[in-house]
Amino acid sequence: MKASDYIIDYLYQKGVTHIFEIIGGMITELIDSADRHGKIKLISVHHEQSAAFAAYSMGRSTGVPGVAMATSSPGAINLLTGVGSCYFDSVPAIFLSGQVNLHEQKKGLNVRQLGFQETDIVSMARPITKAAWMISDSEDIPQALEEAFKITLSGRPGPVLLDIPMDVQRKSIPHQVYTYQQGDREDNFEDFSVINTIFQAFYEAKNPLILVGGGIKSAQVIDELREFVNIVKVPVVHSLMAVDVLPNNNKLRVGMIGTYGNRWANMAIGKSDMILVLGSRLDIRQTGADVEFFQTGQNIIHVDCEKDEINNRIKGCYSVVANLKTFIPSLLRAAKELRFSQRGEWINNIEQMRKEWPDIDEIKQKSGINPIKFMHTLSKASNEAIGYVVDTGNHQMWAAQSLEISEEQQFITSGGMGAMGFSLPAAIGLSFTYPDQPVIQITGDGGMQINIQELETISHHKLPIKMVVINNSSLGMVRQFQQSYYHERYASSIKGYSAPDFEKVAKAYGIGALTIDDENSIQKGITKLWENPQEPFLLQVKIDSTINAYPKIAFGHPITEMEPDIKPNDLRET
Q1: Does 422 lie in the same domain as 314?
Q2: How crowded is residue 142: how many other Cβ atoms within 10 Å of its Cβ?
Q3: Is residue 570 assigned to a domain?
């Protein structure tokens, strides 16, 4: 069996349905094998970064590794932003890069390059993958694929990169029996003393919270977590990466905490006396810079699959090193045997704070479209969507703060990498994951321009992606930073920056589009967005360039002290 044929058939046997790629000389064997195989769809995008982001979205959504391929040198290097995104956000993915023939490689020669487009992509990828290596013998391919799938899915998920020379792809190998099953078998979590400690802490606490992070989604235990929360009746706050863990209509869902968290959710952290942390790293974007305030008076139980993530920035936590894939089901089984009282007073206190600081009042603009109000209106009209794929910037924070996510919907965004240009290709990945179900992409004018070429992919495949471009004619998040710390000198965020008319751009790609710029036109725009649910559409939403993402933790202050009411400390003084 030819090695490239084996690779494609192996991926198919493991549940891979799509490969995102741009053809290049060093992957033509793999492309040809996939085309002849016919059971995995080749999705040709228009930049390798887009291929990687689409693979991210598929892996994040399903738990089955997303797959992207690229040719050697520039193609493989272009994958790396998406590879790093998978690594930081714990997304299972397999990246295949083509490499020049073995006899064209420089090996130990003291030259920069021997073969045309020869590049040591493995060394570049190693810091942002769970594993990366070059396969130099075709007979090693079966074992390499077994190891790659084992590594990407085991423990904390993450990407693996395999670099395969062209001549290795062409060689013959014996057909192998597929022995590896999805992921390592995880032992049940059976340390009942830990579980008893958690329940005892719930019983003793007056104002307990559960803080959930992206690890819940990476472990694919959202359903179990929802059932557990409803049994123990403890309010839940979440990080940016866990917006969709509890639906909006769940009364125990408090909101997002952190730098741009809902004000009432951050206030709840300040009033709580016990926090169970599940799958969150407690990084600065969740706790703020004042870690002493965050941990003072709190009984914090921190559960994570990596011990170095616990008692890192936040000290004195009760440490539980466990994989949520087995820990949450064990916690749920134990909870079903117990009774938990209602926490009406605590929940009512949180609800009162929500009413006192409503999200729509955080933006004080006198005219034009309030992006927070827009997010609520968009949500109410978008029950048909499988989910929201959101870029990086101020619009990301407005979406995370205020979208009303239903039980079946997903929220996907770039977390640790925070990559602009993420949302358009990631929406493509989600759209292919759930054919015929509309996807909403939300981006800013800056993010939209980074991978705007993928409008052709959407048009070519007629994907039902509803694109919402929040156009503030600036790079708003950095502009807001410059407002706070650079005396309103807006170099490169406004000065020297520009954006096209995205309605015209979309129409040039054969995609329907409309622009709205005042509050009275919001309903018209959203109605037009959903006029034909199975067709792509772009809605350009023009807002004032001076609108900031509020509330925001005032830098150097506790999590409960937020802009614009509190002025941040100067960066040089903290």
Answers
A1: no
A2: 21
A3: no
